[in-house]
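[Q] Does anyone have a clean structure-token version of this?
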Amino acid sequence: MNTIVSIDASSAERLEVVRSADRLAAIEADWMHLWHRTDGLIFQSHAWISAWWSTVAERDQRALRIGLVWNGDRLVAVVPLTIGKRKGLRFLEWAASSYTDYGDILVAPECSLSALQDVWAQICDAGGFDIAFLNHLLPGAAVRKIFTPDTSGGIRLRPNHREEVSYRVAGQWKSGAAWFAEQSKKTRQNYRRGVKTLEEAGEMKFRLLAPDEPLQPVLDRLSALKRRWLVERKRESQLFEEGAPVLAALVDALARAGVLRIFVLECDGAMVAVSINFVQHHTMMAFVTTFDPDFSQASPGMILMMDYIQWSIDHGLGTVDFLCGAESFKHKFATQGVVLQSVLGARTAQGSIASLADRMRQRVRHVRGRGPVPTS
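[A] Here you go.
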């Protein structure tokens, strides 16, 4: 059931909280129109969130809480949230949070701040969760308008100690070759040595997949390589489970939005490295990258990355964004890093206890010199 509440008859603004898959499907056209108008990232698109919701495992353990603001019959804001369970607690978090590198809301210029704050209050008042936790916030995220200190309704969200860094390659190179020439002598030598090793094993080819090429064989290969990597490190990811539909659904969302770019490195026709990327805001964004460990001596993942960085520069893109994660290979090539912050607020006694326990753990780590001073 959805809730619609009038705010101000003079402005014709009204609120709605989407809770059902049917209603989510019904607002697709309005949502996508707002997404295009505001030049939103794919993570805030209807295609991305509905792809996740239609394929997410254990959906009966989750609940949609997507706040909307309407101005007349025009959608002017989307607050894409969901409730999920972890460690015995119910979290209000970004919809598709596991696959969303930058969390945010969509807001049209004509949407009032009071409407945004009221839809947040309505979501909070409806309950059903212990803790609200919104992460992966860019410095200029629009959602920051909701949890300003003067917000009167809803849960007060405060800065949380959990931060991540988004590493990027950004500069004014005239060409990809110019960027390559600026790399250290050792990096250039390692690249050439890796290329030579692959060429000795067979014909090496770097290429961008054509729009009409079938995607499933590439996704199957990528998932198999990722599962092997995860097993070796005793880790798991639903994104790459055999037969799981979520990766294909998300990639399809990228393709339908016209932003998908898949780069492959082949040796004798076999894919030895794959990177699923997308282009938005004059930026190449690297979503998922993997390589065949049987060819690890040649470092095919590094070769592929250096090749698509050069490709991006040659095609006029100003930035290559490695998205979330502080893996060493990202830091190696990055020229800048952007800190992604998080905010947290407790709604129930259980949530307050968990939040307090988390702060105490952080204080202990700080005293021991293992972590930052907690801010919440």
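[Q] Thanks! Anything notable?
[A] Confidence is low (pLDDT under 50) at residues 6-10.
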